[in-house]
Automatic annotation (TrEMBL):
Coiled coil: none annotated. Belongs to the MIP18 family. This is Protein AE7-like 1. PANTHER family: CYTOSOLIC IRON-SULFUR ASSEMBLY COMPONENT 2B-RELATED, PROTEIN AE7-LIKE 1. One of its GO terms (biological process) is protein maturation.
């Protein structure tokens, strides 16, 4: 059994230039995709790059329906057989849980056709019991925590 990265040489993209927001553009407490995107700055669990740099997550992959209280995050794993797809999805879910009240329904999915086990990954990431069970696993929880807090170090 070999230990190592499944995608040892991912394609790294340049970071997008962002204009810093100095005030609330909405005047109310509306949520927009850019706000969520900024919240979801995370490093990839296997690589020293952000999800943005690896094109796993983009502002365009986030949709918000404020009226229905729904947020949809669609991410693209770096390869079809990415073993970190579930971990990335868990990281996104846990990070959003800290920022949004429970009345927001958050769906997290892999982009259609981007993962060999797309249906299985989507089902796991959007089932409360499966998410809770995954986060009770100490090794998996440690990996999620490292991903969430690595940019704070």
């Amino acid at each position: 059994m070999t230990l190592g990265l499944i995608n040892a040489n991912p394609v790294v993209h340049a970071k997008k230039e962002r204009v810093a927001r100095t005030e609330d553009l909405h005047g109310d407490d509306a949520v927009d995709p850019l706000e969520i995107y900024d919240i979801l700055f995370l490093l990839h669990p296997e690589h020293p790059y952000s999800l943005e740099q690896l094109s796993v997550l983009s502002e365009e992959s986030i949709t918000v329906d404020e009226k229905l209280g729904r947020i949809l995050i669609t991410f693209t794993p770096t390869i079809q057989h990415c073993s970190m797809a579930t971990v990335i999805g868990l990281c996104l879910r846990v990070k959003l849980k800290h920022y949004f009240p429970p009345h927001f329904k958050v769906d997290i999915k892999v982009s259609p056709g981007s993962h060999a086990n797309e249906e299985s990954v989507n089902k796991q990431l959007n089932d409360k019991e499966r998410v809770a069970a995954a986060l009770e696993n100490p090794n998996l929880r440690q990996l999620v925590d490292e991903c969430l807090y690595s940019n704070e170090l």
